[in-house]
Amino acid sequence: MTVGAIAGVAGWLPEVACLGGVTVLLFWAALHDIATRRVSDRLVLCVAMLDFLLACLGGYPWRGILSGLCLFILGVTCWSRGWMGGGDAKLLGAVGLALRPGQVPALVLDIALAGGVLALGYLLGRALLPPRHGGAAPRNGVRRVLRIERWRLHRGCPLPYVCAITGGSLVVFL
Questions:
Q1: Model confidence over 106-154: pLDDT tens digits?
Q2: Residue 125: partners with Cβ closer than 8 Å, 6 or more residues away
Q3: Global confidence as pTM
Q4: Distances (CA, A) of 68 to 38, 96, 120
Q5: 83, 159 in Cβ contact below 8 A?
Q6: CA 14, CA 10: separation in Å to the nearest integer?
């Protein structure tokens, strides 16, 4: 391998590592939101740091901060109206740190579409899955989460909107 080839790989390797880290963290946040309907502040901070590092590596840190701030304001507005949770609003702002301002509308559209698919899935689940009554609680973690989700479906509980944020973000990032 030549020196030029090594330098070329070294140029994009940090960006790929940051994107990989953000992807893993977003999937973890989505799974955690499904299970608990909570978003860890530490996780949001890690996503924010990696996304800001991506903006710095791309040469647009101030534009990333502007995008993140706009998305955070949008998230807080949605939170204040009861349309999304506070953790969702923080994560939305953190995801925005990796974007140029021109990418913000695409991200909002992709998250809205992913949220629509998520809501449709929950509406179909409510119609197709009968409520479960009684019985011992399953010991398996996945089965327990599925049972809780079935309960949430029939109670009209909020959606795990981090799943939509994750889906829309990955469409824009990748």
A1: 999 999 999 999 889 878 877 777 766 666 666 666 677 777 777 777 6
A2: 149, 150, 153
A3: 0.81
A4: 21, 4, 28
A5: no
A6: 7
If you search the block for the tokens 């990418």, which residue do you land on?
Answer: 103
Measuring CA to CA, which residue among 173, 169, 170 is closest to residue 93? 169
Bin 109: left if φ > 0, else alpha if -120 < ψ < 50, else beta: alpha
Query: Could you count the other beta carbons within 10 Å of the beta carbon of residue 126?
Result: 16
Instruction: Give start and end residues of each alpha helix (H) in the chain.
Output: 3-36, 41-58, 61-80, 86-96, 104-128, 141-155, 162-173
Interatomic CA distance for residues 124 and 109, integer angstroms:
22
With the C-alpha atoms ordered 160, 145, 50, 18, is the resulting torsion angle positive or negative? negative
